Amino acid sequence: MATFILIHGSWHWGGCFVKVANILAANGHAVITPDLASHGFDPTPTHSVHDLPTYAAPVRAALEQVKGKAILVGHSVGGATCTWLGEELPAKISALVYLTGFMAPAGKTARDFVMTPTYLKDPAIVESQGMLRLGKEGLGLDLSKHELIARSLFSDCTAHDIKVALANLVRVTPHAPFTAISPITNGRYGKLPRHYIECLEDRGLPLAVQREMQAAVPGATVHQLKAGHSPFFSAPDKVAEILMAIA
């Protein structure tokens, strides 16, 4: 049986994976769902998170405590933590999985992929700009924009799941995961098995951008889900099925 560490994306919390985690656990796998620094129940103030090592410290701590190896699963900008740990601690990792995640090549950042015409001119992204606030501490989310958030991040989710998400999202994700320069090398990160789970109906990270990143960091095995940006809510059984096949 495998150990999975599920890494959430911007504004989220580890518990967003509860449906997937329960399925994996029911099938005998160990699952860890940490809160990244300043998210969920983590007490770190947003203003004190200046780099990716600080932001990803809870995930690193969880990985270091695992006996043997773990499969890291990074959703959205949680992919930046996957990439960093893949280079930092490859001996502790059996596979990296990007769930509609940011996957930047050496010398590039996640932010580089949201500053392209492919991203900025996508109609869903143009619409979603009304819910975002770029500030000194990080990328803010206007939690009063319920309908915009639902259409962008939870387009195929139930009203119940959207209500749960809105009650748990934080207002700001630090700049760190967006601006961290990918440190990957062929000798460390490059030796790990990688998987990319495309979300074909994603309105938060358009499919074309997902594929730009796959082209920039070739070599991942590609899986597909007919789902929006948050399949851990809308298609947990299918996400778990893919992860168990990887294990």
Describe the structure.
The protein is of the alpha/beta class and 247 residues long. 36% of the residues lie in helices and 17% in strands. The chain has 12 helices and 9 strands. The strands form 2 sheets. The protein has a 6-stranded parallel sheet with strand order 2-1-3-4-8-9, with helices on both faces. A 3-stranded antiparallel sheet has the order 5-6-7. Helix 1 packs across helix 12.
How do the strands and helices of this protein lay out in sequence?
Layout: E1 3-7, H1 18-26, E2 30-32, H2 52-55, H3 57-65, E3 70-75, H4 78-88, E4 93-99, H5 117-120, H6 123-128, E5 132-134, E6 138-141, H7 146-153, H8 159-168, E7 172-174, H9 176-179, E8 194-199, H10 207-216, E9 221-225, H11 231-234, H12 236-246
Parallel strand pairs: 1-2, 1-3, 3-4, 4-8, 8-9
Antiparallel strand pairs: 5-6, 6-7
Helix pairs in contact: 1-12
Outline of the structure:
The chain is α/β, with parallel strands linked by helices. The chain is built from twelve helices and nine strands.
Characteristics of this structure?
single chain, 247 residues, alpha/beta, six-stranded parallel beta sheet, three-stranded antiparallel beta sheet, 12 helices, globular
